[in-house]
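dumping this here so i dont lose it
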């Protein structure tokens, strides 16, 4: 299946310059807005129902839907992504008031001395790792306090998110590509300067998007998408479309890329806090597989999955490091989790509803090739899922970064609710 041509595009409203909203916060794991917009056109999404992204991340699908006047709902297990998606799709705030409040925060900041930093303020693990300077963490923490003193409600949340986004983008010592790597930032880093820079950017962008009458409703929920039907029980609308990209089965800890943000916001203080987030995620790496997990039992009879699990088990026996022993279980739990998600989704969507899943082939587990989209298509055809496979297309090709230099594809799997 090829993506829709311009001649066959359905008529939709359109907010120009919405791309500027995407830049408020981006993730190396996200997918591009242009792909989402093409999929919206391909699936003929309109405002007669709701578009769901059950793994919404930084809100790319939701922003694109909103700009086209399409109602959308996003779900993510990571609470930071939930706040981010909400902020990027909440365009009701007055840009001038945002600027005024930010300036008020800056005035209060000038009254705070940042010299002789007390060691007790270095509680962030990201400081201990060297991902943030102690002075940056301290100043950010004090600015967060000033925001709380200055305003409440939506404006407070919005300013808080802008601060955290600016710290990650311009003041941290780490970047992801997708692995974490250190960067050197020389000289003094002014968190206040970067905070105001981000606020000016956001206020300018809001002025642009608020000039249009087109704007779809948006809702964002924190939860486990493997139980999407329970999470959206009683939802006041029909979920007619899904556009999403679940985690890929690769040895990347998806919470790692937001560790700075989670800790600055106080969403993670202990390993138990982090575990709660990971336990709501599809098991895609060895750092979020737990003893009590049993999603593989749902799909253990799938020959294609069992062959990969058995192959990995044989290879892992020859390895000395502990994480390798988990790899076969990761794959079983990963596809079991996707099966559980799709089974639950089937309870939620009406007949004829259409889905597009962006899925990536992988070779990161001991060089074992995992054709993700093909396996999900096989599950849909042969394992009692209420979806018909209507097509699969290649989106892009890249080289595997671990285990082999094999070319692997990222593909789009199209499904229709039977």
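and the seq i came up w/
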């Amino acid at each position: 299946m090829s993506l829709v041509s311009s001649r066959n595009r359905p008529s939709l409203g359109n907010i120009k310059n919405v791309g500027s909203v995407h830049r408020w916060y981006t993730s190396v794991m996200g997918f591009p807005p242009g792909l989402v917009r093409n999929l919206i056109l391909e699936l003929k999404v309109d405002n007669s129902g709701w578009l769901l992204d059950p793994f919404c991340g930084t809100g790319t699908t939701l922003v694109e839907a909103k700009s086209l006047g399409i109602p959308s709902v996003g779900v993510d297990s990571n609470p930071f992504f939930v706040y981010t998606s909400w902020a990027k799709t909440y365009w009701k705030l007055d840009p001038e008031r945002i600027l005024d409040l930010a300036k008020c925060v800056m005035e209060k900041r000038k009254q705070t001395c940042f010299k002789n930093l007390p060691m007790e303020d270095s509680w962030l693990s990201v400081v201990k790792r060297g991902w943030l300077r102690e002075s940056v963490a301290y100043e950010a923490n004090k600015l967060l306090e000033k925001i709380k003193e200055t305003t409440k409600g939506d404006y407070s949340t919005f300013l808080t998110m802008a601060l955290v986004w600016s710290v990650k983008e311009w003041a941290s010592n780490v970047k992801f590509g997708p692995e974490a790597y250190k960067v050197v930032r020389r000289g003094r880093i002014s968190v206040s300067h970067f905070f105001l820079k981000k606020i000016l950017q956001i206020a300018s962008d809001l002025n642009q998007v608020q000039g249009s009458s087109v704007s779809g409703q948006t809702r964002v929920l924190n939860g486990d998408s493997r139980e999407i039907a329970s999470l959206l029980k009683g939802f006041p609308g029909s979920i007619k479309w899904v556009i999403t990209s679940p985690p890929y089965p690769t040895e990347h800890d998806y919470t790692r890329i937001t560790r700075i943000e989670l800790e600055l916001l106080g969403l993670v203080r202990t390993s138990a806090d982090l575990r709660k987030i990971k336990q709501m995620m599809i098991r895609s790496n060895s750092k979020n597989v737990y003893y009590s997990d049993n999603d593989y039992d749902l799909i253990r009879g799938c020959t294609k999955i069992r062959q990969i699990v058995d192959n990995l088990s044989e290879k892992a026996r020859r390895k000395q490091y502990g994480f390798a022993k988990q790899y076969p279980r990761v794959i079983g739990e990963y596809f079991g989790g996707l099966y559980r998600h799709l089974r639950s989704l089937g309870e939620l969507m009406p007949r004829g509803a259409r889905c597009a899943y962006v899925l990536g082939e992988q070779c990161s587990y001991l060089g074992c090739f995992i054709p993700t989209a093909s396996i999900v298509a096989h599950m849909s055809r042969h394992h009692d899922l209420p979806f018909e496979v209507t097509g699969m297309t290649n989106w892009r090709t890249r080289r595997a970064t671990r285990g082999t230099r094999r070319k692997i594809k990222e593909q789009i799997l199209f499904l229709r609710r039977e």
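The longest strand covers residues 387-399.
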